[in-house]
Each structure stands twice: as C-alpha cells, then as structure tokens.
Design goal:
The complex is a heterodimer of chains A (116) and B (112).
Chain A lengths: L2 E3 L4 E5 L4 E3 L2 E3 L6 E7 L6 E7 L7 E2 L2 E6 L4 E6 L8 E8 L9 E2 L3 E6 L1
Chain B lengths: L3 E4 L2 E4 L5 E7 L5 E7 L5 E9 L2 E4 L6 E3 L9 E3 L8 E8 L7 E2 L3 E5 L1
Parallel strand pairs in B: 2-11
Antiparallel strand pairs in B: 1-3, 3-8, 4-5, 4-9, 5-6, 7-8, 9-10, 9-11
Classes of the chains: A mainly beta (116), B mainly beta (112).
C-alpha cells in the first residue's frame, strides 16, 4: 500500500509572498496519481491540483504549481502571491489505480496561515 | 449545483446507539467513498463503492456498514456507537477512481 508523508505540520507566509509545502510518498507502482487538497475552516475539501505520474511536466493551476520529482518520490506544492483566502489545511494524497482499492491515501496535512 | 450532499452536519450519539449518515450525489458518478478525519490526521477510507450493488472495505471498516442500491446514494451505518467513532465523516464521489474526488461538507459526530 502507498504511504504519504507531510513533514511540516504548520507553516506561515506573508501575504503576496511565495510558500512551498512538502510532500513525499512511497509506492512500488509506476502508474499513480498525486493530488493536493485544500481544507479551509469551512471544512470543505477542495481539489487544488492533480498530477499524473506518467507526465513529466509539472502541473500548474493559476497561482498553484507543483514540483514533481518522480525518482525522489517528492511532490511539493508552491503557492505564489499568497492570499488571505489561502489560509487552510493542505493535504497531499496519492491513489494507485492498479492496487484495486481506489483508495486515496492522505498525508496528515500542513496548516498554512497567510499573514496580512 | 448540489454535487455531494451529506446529512446531518452535526450529531451527538450516546454509546450503543445506532445511526445512518446519508450521502447523495447528482453527478452520476460510479465511484463513492466514505472517509473519516480524526484531529491532526488526514482522511482514512472506511468503505467505497465502484457502482450500484458493489461495495468494499477500506482501511478502517470496523463498526460500520454501507449499502449502494442506487448510483446516487451511499449511506453509512454506524451500529453500536463507541467513543472511538467520534470523528468528522466525509462522503465523496468521483467519475473514475483516479479522477478528482468531490467531497461533501462533512458530518461532525460525537459519541458520548
């Protein structure tokens, strides 16, 4: 089974600055997908960005981008021009379709605070 | 644009009571999931379903049951509630197992 590790329980960033959240994962499979989900205080889980393991190009969604290092099994999230609305818990997650359970495995999360 | 709807949003149960958490989605997704989120932890999969009539256990299924009689609905049943089941529960659905999962707003359950 896959594992996901987020080593930064809490981080803070000044508004308009850039911050990078770390995530490492482990799986023996070659076909898998990686995700970053955001959970604001409202509790709603919202997809931020998705990366297919077979794609070398790093995914980008507006101010959010990833640094996907497949050999190192690293999947960090960069948030540029941080805004107050980015304050939330961020979860890294991995799914391995071939494993049969279609289970999204989550890390423990990083609590990000954007400071005005 | 409803997406995934969970009810109730909050509930307090006494030890030994039973209840059903309701989940419905209007996106015609085949895949549906129940997760629980404990403080300081990520989400853990309880049960999932890949279509009507098909369910399977996730990582933490003990103390729970599910059924999937329609594409839209995926209720989670708690039998004989225990304090260890105090958690926030999320229902989710996706078009395929590896595509974006859409989550409900969660149910905060407290067992006393």
């Amino acid at each position: 089974a896959q594992t996901v590790t987020q080593s930064q329980p809490e981080m803070s960033v000044q508004e308009a600055e850039t911050v990078t959240l770390s995530c490492t994962y482990d799986t023996s499979e070659n076909n898998y997908y990686l995700f970053w989900y955001k959970q604001p205080p409202s509790r709603q889980m919202i997809l931020v960005i998705r990366q297919e393991a077979y794609k070398q190009q790093n995914a980008t969604e507006n101010r959010f981008s990833v640094n996907f290092q497949k050999a190192a099994k690293s999947f960090s999230l960069k948030i540029s021009d941080s805004q107050l609305g980015d304050t939330a818990m961020y979860f890294c997650a991995c799914i391995v379709p071939g494993a049969g359970s279609y289970q999204l495995t989550f890390g423990k999360g990083t609590k990000l605070s954007v400071i005005p | 644009n409803a997406g995934v709807t969970q009810t109730p949003k909050f509930r307090i149960l006494k030890i030994g009571q039973s209840m059903t958490l309701q989940c419905t989605q209007d996106m015609n997704h085949n895949y549906m999931y129940w997760y629980r989120q404990d403080p300081g932890m990520g989400l853990k999969l309880i049960y999932y379903s890949v279509g009507a009539g098909i369910t399977d256990k996730g990582e933490v299924p003990n103390g729970y049951n599910v059924s999937r009689s329609t594409t839209e609905d995926f209720p989670l049943r708690l039998e004989l509630a225990a304090p260890s089941q105090t958690s926030v529960y999320f229902c989710a659905s996706s078009y395929l197992g590896w595509t974006e999962a859409f989550f409900g707003q969660g149910t905060r359950l407290t067992v006393v």
